[in-house]
Protein backbone atom coordinates (compact mmCIF):
# COMPACT_ATOMS: atom_id res chain seq x y z
CA UNK A 1 0.00 0.00 0.00
CA UNK A 2 2.74 2.38 1.03
CA UNK A 3 4.74 1.44 -2.05
CA UNK A 4 1.71 1.83 -4.31
CA UNK A 5 1.06 5.34 -3.05
CA UNK A 6 4.70 6.29 -3.51
CA UNK A 7 4.59 5.11 -7.10
CA UNK A 8 1.33 6.94 -7.68
CA UNK A 9 2.74 10.20 -6.31
CA UNK A 10 5.69 9.72 -8.62
CA UNK A 11 3.72 8.82 -11.74
CA UNK A 12 1.05 11.44 -11.44
CA UNK A 13 3.37 14.35 -11.50
CA UNK A 14 5.56 13.18 -14.31
CA UNK A 15 2.40 13.57 -16.37
CA UNK A 16 1.80 17.03 -14.99
CA UNK A 17 5.39 18.02 -15.67
CA UNK A 18 5.21 17.12 -19.33
CA UNK A 19 1.73 18.50 -19.88
CA UNK A 20 2.60 22.12 -20.46
CA UNK A 21 6.06 22.60 -22.02
CA UNK A 22 4.70 25.17 -24.46
CA UNK A 23 3.34 27.31 -21.66
CA UNK A 24 6.65 27.13 -19.90
CA UNK A 25 8.55 28.21 -23.00
CA UNK A 26 6.17 31.10 -23.61
CA UNK A 27 6.73 32.43 -20.12
CA UNK A 28 10.46 32.02 -20.15
CA UNK A 29 12.23 35.35 -20.22
CA UNK A 30 9.08 37.43 -20.05
CA UNK A 31 8.10 36.29 -16.58
CA UNK A 32 4.71 36.69 -14.98
CA UNK A 33 2.95 37.19 -11.68
CA UNK A 34 0.57 39.71 -10.16
CA UNK A 35 2.64 41.10 -7.29
CA UNK A 36 4.07 44.60 -6.79
CA UNK A 37 7.51 43.52 -8.05
CA UNK A 38 6.23 41.76 -11.18
CA UNK A 39 7.15 40.21 -13.37
CA UNK A 40 8.65 37.38 -11.42
CA UNK A 41 11.07 35.45 -13.57
CA UNK A 42 13.74 32.78 -13.26
CA UNK A 43 17.34 32.01 -14.04
CA UNK A 44 20.06 29.55 -13.26
CA UNK A 45 23.25 30.26 -11.36
CA UNK A 46 26.54 28.45 -11.92
CA UNK A 47 26.91 28.13 -8.16
CA UNK A 48 23.70 26.04 -8.00
CA UNK A 49 23.40 24.35 -11.37
CA UNK A 50 20.82 21.74 -10.46
CA UNK A 51 18.16 24.22 -9.38
CA UNK A 52 16.12 27.09 -10.85
CA UNK A 53 16.08 30.47 -9.10
CA UNK A 54 12.93 32.64 -9.22
CA UNK A 55 13.19 36.32 -8.37
CA UNK A 56 11.28 39.60 -8.74
CA UNK A 57 12.46 41.81 -11.60
CA UNK A 58 11.66 44.98 -9.64
CA UNK A 59 13.65 45.48 -6.47
CA UNK A 60 11.61 46.16 -3.34
CA UNK A 61 12.30 49.62 -1.92
CA UNK A 62 13.49 50.57 1.56
CA UNK A 63 15.97 47.71 1.77
CA UNK A 64 13.09 45.27 2.08
CA UNK A 65 14.59 41.82 2.02
CA UNK A 66 13.41 38.77 0.11
CA UNK A 67 12.33 35.80 2.26
CA UNK A 68 12.87 32.40 0.66
CA UNK A 69 10.74 29.51 -0.55
CA UNK A 70 12.50 26.23 -1.34
CA UNK A 71 10.27 24.20 -3.64
CA UNK A 72 10.07 20.46 -4.42
CA UNK A 73 8.24 19.45 -7.60
CA UNK A 74 5.66 16.75 -8.09
CA UNK A 75 7.15 13.34 -8.83
CA UNK A 76 10.34 14.71 -7.23
CA UNK A 77 10.93 15.87 -10.79
CA UNK A 78 14.10 17.75 -11.59
CA UNK A 79 12.40 20.12 -14.01
CA UNK A 80 12.73 23.47 -12.26
CA UNK A 81 9.94 25.02 -14.33
CA UNK A 82 7.34 22.36 -13.41
CA UNK A 83 5.48 24.92 -11.30
CA UNK A 84 6.75 28.12 -12.87
CA UNK A 85 3.35 29.86 -12.87
CA UNK A 86 3.17 29.46 -9.08
CA UNK A 87 6.78 30.41 -8.43
CA UNK A 88 6.95 33.42 -10.76
CA UNK A 89 3.89 34.80 -9.01
CA UNK A 90 5.39 34.26 -5.56
CA UNK A 91 8.62 35.93 -6.70
CA UNK A 92 6.62 38.92 -7.95
CA UNK A 93 5.49 39.54 -4.35
CA UNK A 94 9.07 39.97 -3.19
CA UNK A 95 10.40 36.48 -2.51
CA UNK A 96 13.27 34.39 -3.77
CA UNK A 97 12.11 30.89 -4.71
CA UNK A 98 14.49 28.04 -5.44
CA UNK A 99 13.00 25.06 -7.26
CA UNK A 100 14.71 21.74 -7.66
CA UNK A 101 16.14 20.99 -11.09
CA UNK A 102 17.42 23.23 -13.85
CA UNK A 103 14.73 24.72 -16.13
CA UNK A 104 14.98 21.76 -18.50
CA UNK A 105 16.54 19.39 -16.00
CA UNK A 106 16.09 15.63 -15.94
CA UNK A 107 16.09 12.84 -13.41
CA UNK A 108 14.73 13.07 -9.91
CA UNK A 109 15.42 15.11 -6.81
CA UNK A 110 15.43 13.99 -3.19
CA UNK A 111 15.55 15.40 0.32
CA UNK A 112 19.29 15.98 0.02
CA UNK A 113 18.90 18.10 -3.11
CA UNK A 114 16.31 20.20 -1.27
CA UNK A 115 18.79 20.60 1.58
CA UNK A 116 21.42 21.66 -0.97
CA UNK A 117 19.19 24.62 -1.85
CA UNK A 118 18.96 25.59 1.84
CA UNK A 119 22.77 25.34 2.08
CA UNK A 120 23.17 27.53 -1.01
CA UNK A 121 20.75 30.18 0.28
CA UNK A 122 22.47 30.41 3.65
CA UNK A 123 25.84 30.74 1.90
CA UNK A 124 24.88 33.30 -0.77
CA UNK A 125 22.26 35.48 0.97
CA UNK A 126 23.66 38.93 1.59
CA UNK A 127 26.27 38.67 -1.16
CA UNK A 128 26.43 39.95 -4.77
CA UNK A 129 23.17 39.53 -6.70
CA UNK A 130 21.62 38.09 -3.53
CA UNK A 131 22.45 41.04 -1.26
CA UNK A 132 18.77 41.50 -0.39
CA UNK A 133 17.98 37.83 0.28
CA UNK A 134 17.02 37.01 3.87
CA UNK A 135 18.29 33.55 4.83
CA UNK A 136 16.68 33.87 8.26
CA UNK A 137 13.26 33.35 6.63
CA UNK A 138 13.03 30.02 4.81
CA UNK A 139 9.97 27.95 3.97
CA UNK A 140 10.40 24.45 2.54
CA UNK A 141 7.39 23.24 0.58
CA UNK A 142 6.52 20.96 -2.25
CA UNK A 143 3.85 19.29 -4.29
CA UNK A 144 3.18 15.55 -3.87
CA UNK A 145 6.59 13.82 -3.79
CA UNK A 146 8.15 17.28 -3.34
CA UNK A 147 6.08 17.69 -0.18
CA UNK A 148 7.74 14.60 1.31
CA UNK A 149 11.11 16.28 0.74
CA UNK A 150 9.88 19.34 2.63
CA UNK A 151 8.72 17.13 5.51
CA UNK A 152 12.16 15.47 5.57
CA UNK A 153 13.74 18.93 5.90
CA UNK A 154 11.52 20.09 8.77
CA UNK A 155 14.28 19.04 11.21
CA UNK A 156 16.72 21.56 9.67
CA UNK A 157 17.03 24.50 12.09
CA UNK A 158 17.30 26.94 9.14
CA UNK A 159 13.81 25.98 7.92
CA UNK A 160 11.11 28.04 9.68
CA UNK A 161 7.90 26.57 8.27
CA UNK A 162 6.87 23.84 5.83
CA UNK A 163 4.20 23.46 3.17
CA UNK A 164 2.66 20.05 2.44
CA UNK A 165 0.83 20.29 -0.90
CA UNK A 166 -1.19 17.21 -1.97
CA UNK A 167 1.13 15.18 0.19
CA UNK A 168 1.72 13.39 3.48
CA UNK A 169 4.37 11.20 5.06
CA UNK A 170 5.21 7.99 3.18
CA UNK A 171 7.39 6.61 5.97
CA UNK A 172 8.12 7.46 9.59
CA UNK A 173 4.33 7.79 9.89
CA UNK A 174 4.17 9.36 13.32
CA UNK A 175 6.96 11.90 12.76
CA UNK A 176 4.46 14.77 12.52
CA UNK A 177 3.96 14.52 16.29
CA UNK A 178 7.58 15.67 16.66
CA UNK A 179 7.31 18.71 14.35
CA UNK A 180 7.67 22.03 16.14
CA UNK A 181 7.16 24.48 13.26
CA UNK A 182 4.11 26.02 11.58
CA UNK A 183 2.72 23.73 8.88
CA UNK A 184 0.55 24.60 5.89
CA UNK A 185 -1.47 21.69 4.45
CA UNK A 186 -3.03 22.22 1.02
CA UNK A 187 -4.93 19.12 -0.09
CA UNK A 188 -7.15 18.18 -3.02
CA UNK A 189 -10.08 16.64 -1.15
CA UNK A 190 -11.00 13.01 -0.56
CA UNK A 191 -10.19 11.97 -4.14
CA UNK A 192 -6.58 13.18 -3.74
CA UNK A 193 -4.44 10.03 -3.36
CA UNK A 194 -2.44 11.83 -0.67
CA UNK A 195 -5.56 12.93 1.24
CA UNK A 196 -5.48 10.24 3.95
CA UNK A 197 -1.79 10.83 4.60
CA UNK A 198 -2.11 14.60 4.85
CA UNK A 199 -5.15 14.29 7.13
CA UNK A 200 -3.29 11.81 9.36
CA UNK A 201 -0.22 14.06 9.66
CA UNK A 202 -2.38 17.07 10.57
CA UNK A 203 -4.11 15.02 13.31
CA UNK A 204 -0.71 13.97 14.69
CA UNK A 205 0.51 17.54 15.29
CA UNK A 206 1.51 18.30 18.86
CA UNK A 207 -0.14 20.99 20.98
CA UNK A 208 1.25 24.42 20.23
CA UNK A 209 2.15 23.74 16.59
CA UNK A 210 0.25 26.25 14.43
CA UNK A 211 -1.29 24.76 11.32
CA UNK A 212 -3.93 25.44 8.69
CA UNK A 213 -5.29 22.60 6.58
CA UNK A 214 -7.42 23.38 3.57
CA UNK A 215 -9.07 20.98 1.12
CA UNK A 216 -10.74 21.82 -2.14
CA UNK A 217 -12.26 19.02 -4.18
CA UNK A 218 -9.95 19.23 -7.17
CA UNK A 219 -8.06 15.95 -6.69
CA UNK A 220 -4.36 15.31 -6.39
CA UNK A 221 -3.24 17.63 -9.19
CA UNK A 222 -4.68 20.67 -7.51
CA UNK A 223 -4.55 23.98 -9.31
CA UNK A 224 -0.82 24.62 -9.53
CA UNK A 225 -0.83 24.70 -13.34
CA UNK A 226 -3.46 27.45 -13.41
CA UNK A 227 -2.47 31.10 -13.72
CA UNK A 228 -0.35 32.07 -10.70
CA UNK A 229 -0.87 28.57 -9.28
CA UNK A 230 -4.64 29.05 -8.88
CA UNK A 231 -6.34 28.62 -5.51
CA UNK A 232 -3.59 26.35 -4.16
CA UNK A 233 -1.10 29.06 -5.13
CA UNK A 234 -3.16 31.71 -3.34
CA UNK A 235 -2.97 29.78 -0.05
CA UNK A 236 0.79 29.22 -0.38
CA UNK A 237 1.42 32.88 -1.24
CA UNK A 238 -0.74 34.15 1.63
CA UNK A 239 1.07 31.83 4.06
CA UNK A 240 4.42 33.30 2.95
CA UNK A 241 3.12 36.88 3.17
CA UNK A 242 1.76 36.27 6.65
CA UNK A 243 4.64 34.34 8.19
CA UNK A 244 7.50 36.27 6.60
CA UNK A 245 6.11 39.76 5.84
CA UNK A 246 3.59 40.03 8.67
CA UNK A 247 0.89 40.97 6.15
CA UNK A 248 -2.42 41.27 7.99
CA UNK A 249 -4.59 40.89 4.88
CA UNK A 250 -2.77 37.65 4.09
CA UNK A 251 -3.23 36.52 7.70
CA UNK A 252 -6.97 37.09 7.49
CA UNK A 253 -7.15 34.70 4.52
CA UNK A 254 -6.61 31.86 7.01
CA UNK A 255 -9.31 32.96 9.44
CA UNK A 256 -12.03 34.16 7.06
CA UNK A 257 -10.84 35.02 3.52
CA UNK A 258 -10.59 31.36 2.51
CA UNK A 259 -14.36 30.94 2.68
CA UNK A 260 -14.80 32.78 -0.60
CA UNK A 261 -12.60 30.16 -2.26
CA UNK A 262 -14.62 27.20 -0.91
CA UNK A 263 -11.88 25.62 1.16
CA UNK A 264 -12.88 23.05 3.77
CA UNK A 265 -10.67 24.06 6.65
CA UNK A 266 -9.39 22.75 9.95
CA UNK A 267 -6.90 24.69 12.01
CA UNK A 268 -4.58 23.67 14.82
CA UNK A 269 -3.40 26.27 17.35
CA UNK A 270 -3.30 28.78 14.52
CA UNK A 271 -3.67 31.66 17.00
CA UNK A 272 -0.17 30.80 18.23
CA UNK A 273 1.46 31.60 14.91
CA UNK A 274 3.93 34.44 15.29
CA UNK A 275 5.39 35.95 12.11
CA UNK A 276 9.15 35.43 11.83
C1 LIG B 1 11.68 10.21 11.78
O1 LIG B 1 11.01 10.91 12.81
C2 LIG B 1 11.82 11.23 13.93
C3 LIG B 1 10.94 11.90 14.94
O2 LIG B 1 9.83 11.12 15.24
C4 LIG B 1 12.98 12.11 13.50
O3 LIG B 1 13.81 12.39 14.60
C5 LIG B 1 13.77 11.45 12.39
O4 LIG B 1 14.74 12.32 11.90
C6 LIG B 1 12.84 11.04 11.26
N1 LIG B 1 13.56 10.32 10.24
C7 LIG B 1 13.51 10.69 8.97
C8 LIG B 1 14.27 9.82 8.03
O5 LIG B 1 12.88 11.64 8.57
C1 LIG C 1 3.57 42.11 13.14
O1 LIG C 1 2.68 43.19 13.17
C2 LIG C 1 2.11 43.46 14.44
C3 LIG C 1 1.15 44.62 14.30
O2 LIG C 1 0.36 44.52 13.18
C4 LIG C 1 3.20 43.79 15.43
O3 LIG C 1 2.63 43.95 16.70
C5 LIG C 1 4.24 42.66 15.46
O4 LIG C 1 5.31 43.03 16.29
C6 LIG C 1 4.74 42.37 14.07
N1 LIG C 1 5.62 41.21 14.12
C7 LIG C 1 6.79 41.19 13.49
C8 LIG C 1 7.58 39.92 13.62
O5 LIG C 1 7.22 42.11 12.82
From TrEMBL:
<keyword id="KW-0732">Signal</keyword>
<protein>
    <recommendedName>
        <fullName>Alpha/beta-hydrolase</fullName>
    </recommendedName>
</protein>
<feature type="signal peptide">
    <location>
        <begin position="1"/>
        <end position="19"/>
    </location>
</feature>
<dbReference type="InterPro" id="IPR029058">
    <property type="entry name" value="AB_hydrolase_fold"/>
</dbReference>
